[in-house]
Please model this.
Amino acid sequence: MLPEGGAGNDSVESPPRRPFLFLFGAVTIPIIILDQATKLFVQAHMALYESIALIPNYLDITYTLNPGAAFSMLADAPPWVRKAFLLTMACAAIIVLGVLIVRADRISITSVAFAMVLGGAAGNLIDRAIRGRVIDFMRAHYYDLNYPVFNVADSAISIGVVLIILASFFGGDDEPKPDQAG
Model:
């Protein structure tokens, strides 16, 4: 016979598990691995500025190196200013996103989005730290009308930001629901 409140009592609730390890392992790390693997593949198999049409006049793989931020912002700034600013901002973003994910009580659209942005920021930070530039290779365009060349990390950041915006507009599952009984 088991004592009251002891082992085997299913009514005793354990504290809620925080989803950090799941989000980090299932979202952030795979994004970093996929990002770095695709960048290394492109770097090893293509010449700089070489382009391969996947869907002619719409989608190409074009190997470029981006010294600036998103959409080549700060590309014309002095190298030491650009590097210091971008590394500092990436590290700050990673710390803030890490804290937000650690503090999440459960998995939600927003926590998944934070994990995606974290993976993208870390993937691009790895490039900046190792190469001084970010490898970009996906070129979406309509004939000569071009969208800036991007990579897997940029895609993860963009999708994560869109999810955060959508969750903020449509509420969703992130807001705790008040008890209706009282």
The mean pLDDT is 87. The two ends are 37 Å apart (CA to CA).
